[in-house]
Design brief:
The protein folds into 2 domains: 135 residues, 3-Layer(aba) Sandwich (Cytidine Deaminase, domain 2); 203 residues, Dihydrofolate Reductase, subunit A, CATH 3.40.430.10. 24% of the residues lie in helices and 22% in strands. Helix 3 runs parallel beside helix 4. About 7% of the residues have low confidence. The structure holds NADPH dihydro-nicotinamide-adenine-dinucleotide phosphate (NDP) and the ligand Nc1c(N[C@@H]2O[C@H](COP(=O)(O)O)[C@@H](O)[C@H]2O)[nH]c(=O)[nH]c1=O. Its EC number is 3.5.4.26, 1.1.1.193. In the N-terminal section; belongs to the cytidine and deoxycytidylate deaminase family.
Length: 397
């Protein structure tokens, strides 16, 4: 398939619009749509929240009669089913769109090629795959959930230059500075769940909430600059060309998830304060009968070798429509996820400080006998944040 420079330009615009849904579409994917006649954009929109209009509908509303004979650029295959809203493939056909360019096919079982078939059956020319990788990256968790049956798992760790994550006595606040910690808030915000272990709850009493106001000057995660912070024009509809802050009312707070096999989380812990939806996963032998857990949901999950079975944990989170899981845990849980091949990405914040021999390591991993067995990671990007550095890495297959 060959696409023109103009096709690329419109799809890139649609992707930037889709990105506006970064913090609000959960559990739905982030999707953008641009409708154009040649270089002229006649309608543009993005999906803002589950239950709200899809990107195509927002763009069609903006285009009105001018959608007839136009090309629609959509970052995800238009839906073919009656969900919370009617099928977008039907809406595009009814509006008389002549051509649809799709970035990525939708693996959602009720779509899965049917949207494209429907469009073709209506006589519309459909082309797929333009900027597919970028569209899949934006919805990495959505694709993971539907294609692998588990969420995308991102481990976040703050460490010193000598690879330490807390002092020997457990003290860890703070290793990294304010800019790095504010960046963490953005990654928390885009996630469906924030996962931790009982060890971190006991040592740190973390809140694990999203506090985006800690440094509002930062661009969104994964973006190095914000070229044009122009505002949108009404819900999900805009001709603006870049990312913008989302209305606080549309924000979907991530689920706090604590792995606590023996229910050691103390009464009065921040994670039990009801300030965010909270799930405590425990072993079969424990029961959440006491008042400690009045503001949290408790669920048993399978155990394996005296620990909670991590594949069962992730399957449970996928069943609850969690797309991206942000892990803020200690070396035990983070190491176990990596060793079991369940960590998809690492966000490492490196502070220019040394914490010494007695301090806690980054990850508990099995000892290796040969260099062939080592875990190799691929560096995706590197970014300074104040005095610290952020490394984003993915384990090599
Ligand atoms: N610098 C940083 O970015 C961070 C540092 N920390 C530091 O880490 C330290 C705590 O680390 P750590 O003790 O390793 O705690 P973790 O947060 O890794 O929690 C580990 C506990 O989780 C429970 N658990 C349940 N299932 C599993 C499983 N399958 N695999 C592993 N653990 C499981 C276990 O307890 P049980 O069997 O009772 O359920 C286990 O002891 C603190 O000092 C804290 O300050 C923590 C977070 C981030
Ligand atoms: N010490 C340390 C971090 N620690 C992480 O932050 C958690 C506290 O979260 P909250 O209570 O929501 O602010 C704590 O339990 C641990 O997971 N993070 C960082 O970015 N830099 C740091 O230096």
């Amino acid at each position: 398939m060959t696409f023109t420079a103009l096709d690329h330009q419109h799809m890139a615009h649609a992707l930037r619009l889709a990105e506006r849904g970064l913090f609000t579409t959960q559990p739905n994917p982030r999707v953008g749509c641009v409708i154009a006649h040649g270089a002229e954009v006649v309608g543009a929109g993005w999906h803002q929240r589950a239950g709200g209009p899809h990107a195509e509908v927002c763009a069609l509303r903006a285009a009105g009669e001018r959608a007839r004979g136009a090309t629609a650029y959509v970052t995800l295959e238009p839906c073919a089913h009656h969900g919370r809203t009617p099928p977008c493939a039907d809406a595009l056909a009814a509006a008389g769109v002549a051509r649809v360019v799709v970035a990525a096919e939708d693996p959602f079982p009720q779509v899965d090629g049917r949207g494209i078939e429907k469009l073709r059956a209506a006589g519309i020319a459909v082309e797929t795959g333009l900027l597919r990788e970028a569209a899949r990256e934006l919805n990495v968790g959505f694709f993971s959930r539907h294609e692998r049956g588990r969420p995308w798992v991102r481990l976040k760790l703050a460490m010193s230059l000598d690879g330490r994550t807390a002092l020997g006595n457990g003290e860890s606040k703070w290793i990294t500075g304010a800019a790095a910690r504010a960046d963490v808030q953005r990654w928390r915000a885009r996630s469906s769940a924030i996962l931790t272990g009982s060890g971190t709850v006991l040592a740190d009493d973390p809140r694990l909430t999203v506090r985006l106001d800690e440094d509002a000057s930062l661009p969104p995660p994964g973006r190095e600059s914000v070229a044009d912070p122009a505002r949108g024009q009404g819900e999900g509809t805009a001709h603006a060309t870049d990312w913008t802050e989302v209305p606080a009312a549309a924000f979907v707070p991530p689920l706090r998830v604590v792995l606590d096999r023996r229910l050691r989380t103390p009464a009065g812990s921040h994670v039990l304060d009801g300030s965010a939806p909270t799930l405590v996963l425990h072993g079969d032998g424990a029961a959440c009968a006491d008042d400690r857990f009045a503001r949290a949901e408790c669920r048993p999950v399978a155990e394996r070798d005296g620990k909670l079975a991590l594949p069962a944990v992730l399957a449970h989170l996928a069943a609850r429509e969690c797309n991206e899981v942000h892990v803020e845990a200690g070396p035990a849980l983070c190491g176990a996820l990596l060793a079991e091949g369940l960590a998809d990405e690492l966000l490492l914040y490196v502070a220019p400080a040394l914490l010494g021999d007695d301090a806690r390591p980054l990850l508990h991993l099995p000892a290796l006998r040969s260099m062939d067995e080592r875990w190799n990671l691929r560096l995706l990007d590197l970014r300074p944040l104040g005095a610290d550095l952020r490394l984003r890495l993915r384990p090599e297959a």
